[in-house]
Every structure is written in C-alpha cells, then in structure tokens.
Amino acid sequence: MNTPRVLTLHDRRATLFEFGRIVHVGQDDGWIYIRNEESVELFMKKVYHRWPNVLLKCEKYKALELNVVTRCAISSSHCSYFNEIYVDPPNAPLLKFPKDGDKAPKTVEQLVFERIWNMEQWARSLDENKNIEAEGNRYKTALKCQTKGERVLTEATKKFLMQNYDEFSINRTMWLSIEDRAKTRAALRLGVDLTKVSKVRVYLESHLWNTNFLHVTLIDFEGIDAVVGLHHKKDGKNWIATINNGDSEWWKHERQLLREKDVVAPIGYWLQLFKQVQASRYKLESVTHDASVYQGTDVNIIPFPKA
User: Which tens digit of pLDDT belongs to each residue from 49-66?
Assistant: First the structure.
C-alpha cells in the first residue's frame, strides 16, 4: 500500500487528501459518510450548500470505480472529515508534483487548483458557456434593480477590474468589508452567518469578465467558495455589496420562495429560508439538519475563464 499524498493549501486554508476508490457511501439525517478500499471512513456534515450534489458525486464516482481526492477545512482532520471530492486522474494524480515543489508551495497550490477548476469545468462543459452567459445576463438585470448610486458604483468597479485586475490580484489574499444586506445574502445562499464579522478574509480565484463579480474562497469559513459582487471607490476602499453561490439553478427556487428580497428580519429567518430553497433546489423530501451559524459550503461555482 502506498502512503496517500496530502497537500495543505495554506492560502485557501484547506487540505487535499488522496482517498482512493470509494467502496461505500452512506448517510443519515445529519451526515454523509464514505469508505475506501483500506476501510478509511470520512464524514461530511449536512450543513454545506451543495451536500446533496456532493452525495451524488460520491455515488457516481463509486459506481464508476474512480479514485478521488477529498477536501476539508485546514482546521479539520483530513483523516476524519471532508466537504468536497474531486476525481483523481489515474495517469496524472492530482497531488503528484515534482520533489522540489516544497520550495514553491504557493505555485504548487495554484497549479493544483487550476487543474481542479479545469476538471470541474470540463465535467460541466455542455452547460458552461450557457451558465457564464446567464451570469453575465443576471449582472445586467441586477443593474436595472439598483439605485442610481449603486449602479454608478457597480459600473465603476467593473471598469476598475477590467483595467486593473492583474495588479489588483497580485496579493490574492485580502480582507473585504461586507454590507449588512450582503450578510443576509450569505445566509440565504450559502447557509453562513456573517453577522458577527465586519470584514471577511478572501482568496481571489478569478474575475468574471465585464462584471464586478469575483470568484473567491472564504478563508475563515471552512474554505468555502462564493461569488461576490465587489464595490470599489477611487480611494482604494473595497467591500462586498452582494454574494451568491454561483449556482445557476438556485435563482428560480429562491425567487419562488422569497416573498420580499429586502425584508428586515433576524438572521435565523434567512438561514431557515436557505434550507427551504436548498430543499427545493435539490428536490429533498425534508431537511432535518440545522442550518449552521458558522459553516458554509463548497458550491456549484462557475469557474470563470482566465481573461
């Protein structure tokens, strides 16, 4: 038996683990669990936005007898927990890199994750162009619903990112302030409670061309992914004006269940609504687990193409 490779992603605060082939997938009201050929068992709590999709992936990869790499938050044990899985190509293992890779950990991390995003994008290749176009159209629709001041800021930010993203993203880890309204969006779309923070530490993954949308990893919240709508001022101030999970199938379910978009309500209202939208989105018969006040999810992110 070969020792499975492990890669710590310090910038994204996550750990990747060569899990091998899944031989058993199970679940109960609160957890998903998988077991490999070496009888190693990992658990995933059902508080993540995409846990139904991750469950489907586990069952699919088991049926196809594919090797997988699991991901977990750096604060969790990779030998016990996971929050996402990826295919591990047989002829080019995801975590196999040159021996001198230890001398350039940031480069290795970026290369590994570029492979992951490319594989995830390839797996959805039939819908990817459609999804990206839909996200661009949603940006245009959102502009029409904004106040004049918001619209000016959004368009100015879009222009700033189009012209300066390479310089803006030199330091990919940054702290961004977050508006109260965006905190309700985080609860509604990610199942995450951000009410006790004024800033969020993110890792920049990519920019959706011709919009103010950024694909980011929320470093201090289980390393989950999100799409944020950035607002930028000339004085250099940046903040999160809105946030979503990048799931193009989420919106119609949210619209059906959300009576009033900007209703003033406690965070528990939005977390409960999140569970209802999630159940509708994934056709769940019932949701018995609690919406987490801290954790989030690895979501159905549209991997934005490189500019």
Answer: 888 889 999 999 999 999
